[in-house]
Amino acid sequence: DLFKPTHLTEKGYRLYDRSSLEKLQTILFLKELDFSLKEIADILKLTRQEQNQILKKQRQTLFSRKQRLETIMVALEEYVSGNNISNLQIFNNSSVLPLKNNMQMRRDSSMVKQKRIMCLMKRWINYHKMKKMNVFNRRRKYSSKLRLVSISILPPMKFSD
User: Fold this and answer.
1) Do residues 39 and 28 lie in contact, with contact meaning Cβ atoms separated by under 8 Å?
2) Angstrom distance (rounded) from CA 71 to CA 91
3) Rounded to whole angstroms, how far apart are CA atoms 64 and 67?
4) Measuring CA to CA, which residue among 72, 62, 125, 127 is closest to residue 94?
5) Contact 90/75 with Cβ under 8 angstroms?
6) Which pLDDT belongs to residue 150?
């Protein structure tokens, strides 16, 4: 639907007029500017003034990307020449910095979760230790009562010499 021929011949050949070829060049140009086909279809529906506003924003985006790529190229040259990767300034003022901060926050929250889990595990272990000891004590009491009952039920033993 983005680019249709002006005419189809009887043999199925597609024919385009000059305005169609200009539209094709515009589509290809917008594709080179990293717009998706859906975005291109939406842009083509806009007025020329609205298109210009979008293109100015895209220019700024591409300019930022260009600066980022230049920084990466410098870092690559430094790394290839033998510099340690930890000394490279590639991650300063970059899109990776929010990821780095996010990972730090995740690590911190993970440590809090681990501490909470350890605390819960200790409580669980202590609870079961106490429960086991209580059951053991009950068994001991119960078994001693059984012994007393069994001793009183049994007839006295006779020893023969």
Assistant:
1) no
2) 9
3) 5
4) 72
5) yes
6) 47
- CB-based burial of residue 26 (10 Å sphere; 0-12 exposed, 13-18 middle, 19+ buried)? middle
Phi/psi for 153 (5° steps) reads -80, -35
Lowest mean pLDDT among 29-38, 46-55, 62-71, 144-153: 144-153
45 contacts 1 by C-beta, under 8 angstroms: no
d(CA 157, CA 159): 6
Distance CA 104, CA 119 (A): 23
pTM: 0.48
Task: Give CA–CA dist 131/125, Å, rounded.
Answer: 10
